[in-house]
């Protein structure tokens, strides 16, 4: 590769971003309306311009190198900036209308989306946002939603998925519960306490077991499929619950337990359909969410 640095071409950067998002040259070429050989040449040209290797082939798929991963964060910021400049220069942000439907878990919809979506009122005042607060996975393939926030990366090749954040969660209980039942100081102590079930208790037992918690269904006396209801039970002192730190910080009277325990890290994937990603209104919302979610801890 050429070790002499040259200013990278934006088309080459765009080809790199599409390939990284889609995971293959063929899918990226379809998304950009290019032939696969043309896209491949653009990616190779960027590697030559930068003097680095951005992808390595693993079987039939492409995987980002460490340099590629670092490069991707910078190019995404560039892409969002270019889109915003284009919108501002042409007045398109004022003309973007219609509705974008976002699906996310109820807790996330209530605590995180409102402050993130609020600036869109100024950016695109004619745009409507419908948030489907549901813990079940709405089907993007059947257009039940335009954009989804999920904790698991979807496997369908026609979906674009971007890992936007990896926030941390911990065990929490209310001050009133701890005053009544005492504060557990070890993992072993936790087995003597009540827990709040977010959905099926058996599934939660399977989730807790690798963490070293020795619990049974008897530990789960109260719960709800609705995350907001379950968290309210925790806030009212019914028991202990796992919750994202970004939510717990917004809830007065909650105490983090076992502070020396490693936090639980859960990914947030931002997902949309490949065809919908070419829509101006969906691209605007998708990029806005990606930019504002990446700071969540």
UniProtKB/TrEMBL annotation:
One GO biological process term: DNA-templated transcription
InterPro entries: LysR-type_TF_proteobact-type, LysR_HTH_N, LysR_subst-bd, WH-like_DNA-bd_sf, WH_DNA-bd_sf
Keyword Zinc attached: no
Stored Gene3D superfamilies: 3.40.190.290, Winged helix-like DNA-binding domain superfamily/Winged helix DNA-binding domain
Pfam families with a match to the protein in the record: HTH_1, LysR_substrate
Coiled coil feature spans: none
UniProt keyword terms in alphabetical order: DNA-binding, Transcription, Transcription regulation
Entry GO MF terms: DNA-binding transcription factor activity; sequence-specific DNA binding
Domain HTH lysR-type: 8-65
Family designation: Belongs to the LysR transcriptional regulatory family.
Entry protein name: Transcriptional regulator, LysR family
Taxonomic lineage of the native organism: Bacteria, Pseudomonadati, Pseudomonadota, Alphaproteobacteria, Rhodobacterales
